[in-house]
Amino acid sequence: MMSRNPADTRTRILETAWKLLESGDKAVRMSDIAKGAGISRQALYLHFPNRAELLIAVTRHIDSVNDVDTRLAPSRAATRGVERLETFIAAWGGYIPQIHGISVALRAMQGDPEAAAAWDDRMQAVRHGCAAAIRALATDGDLREDLTEEAATDLLWVLLSVENWERLVRDCGWSQDAYLREVTALAHHALLAQSRS
Amino acid sequence: MMSRNPADTRTRILETAWKLLESGDKAVRMSDIAKGAGISRQALYLHFPNRAELLIAVTRHIDSVNDVDTRLAPSRAATRGVERLETFIAAWGGYIPQIHGISVALRAMQGDPEAAAAWDDRMQAVRHGCAAAIRALATDGDLREDLTEEAATDLLWVLLSVENWERLVRDCGWSQDAYLREVTALAHHALLAQSRS
DNA sequence: TGTCAACTTTACACTGTGTCAAGTTGATGC
DNA sequence: GCATCAACTTGACACAGTGTAAAGTTGACA
């Protein structure tokens, strides 16, 4: 028993789970994570009460590793609405690949109310970002006239969903660059009063 | 034992499963379907080899009840590209509510390769419809110049995904009418060379 | 009357999650 | 040096849901 530091073990579990989820191919059972982290399956339950909590902890771990606030800083700093929209799409769209694996696992646990709530919270956070961008657009008078701010927020939020990223990048074989480019262009055409390329 | 006709029992199973999936609230186990159809759980396996095959049979049943070909006739009959796009969105978008329940169940069975393949097939069929509409647009010269036919097909396909419908109608509380209206408008702005309302 | 097909009941194997209890082991304090 | 404690181990078990197997019931039909 080399490393007996509980914090070490915890992060090793989280990193292992992240890696396994990211690789995506399989189902990722508790025993897989335990084996990957080099501990017994039961030891997982010394660190996390159940699978849902473990997955939720993984998302928080990914967030802290990636420093979400820093990623979003350019968007918050943007002065013009269009700029804010573009930087937000770049920030969130660039973050999706990181959380894609955990997203699949969490959505597959629809049965568990805790897991559902955790994923829902994250999506609501994204929605707030969308709302802020749309509000900035509206303030500049750049929002398409026949769209409510509410409706525009919903549309942008849906457009930027992880599922859409999965479809385009994984199913359609788009590169991450192509995804960002086309989604940004689509948002322009769909949301702005007059589209400027 | 009143109705001993196997075909009757089969359709009763399919209708029951459809109804239960549509209601959406719960997990819909084999025993739920059996109870709903008024037979024993084991009798299900006299009609379907496993859960995946049953779910697939439900989708086929829904298709036959709803007569998909008739729904798509207006789209195929459309002469101009824009008209074809609009009628296709109306047809498919109007069909989504019917298959929404089974869609959730089938996607939740990602583990099962048969279920995955079945859902994939259906999505590819939708994609073909998207491709036909895009091709018609391109032929008319109405497609946005900076879009490949391929890319435009991908975008339309993603836009019309069941997941996006779920988000907008279920999560955001849009009416089916609002969904069809806004999605059609979005497709116009996103895909057409110059948007005409 | 006998046979067959649809269906029933009971029982069990398998997988994956989560719980419980009784060890083992290494660091730390005294 | 010795006890203690926390992290971890092994092994067993309950539970849910799917799928399999086997033996019995029942109604239709020839």
From TrEMBL, chains A, B:
UniProt DNA-binding region: 29-48
Gene Ontology terms, MF aspect: DNA-binding transcription factor activity; transcription cis-regulatory region binding
Protein name, as recorded: TetR family transcriptional regulator
One Pfam family per UniProt: TetR_N
Alphabetical list of PANTHER family matching this protein: HTH-TYPE TRANSCRIPTIONAL REGULATOR BETI (PTHR30055:SF234), HTH-TYPE TRANSCRIPTIONAL REGULATOR RUTR (PTHR30055)
Gene3D superfamilies assigned: Tetracycline Repressor, domain 2
Organism: Donghicola eburneus
Keyword DNA repair: no
Signal sequence interval, chain numbering: none
Residues forming coiled coils: none
Residues of the HTH tetR-type domain: 7-66
Presence of keyword DNA-binding: yes
Keywords on record: DNA-binding, Transcription, Transcription regulation
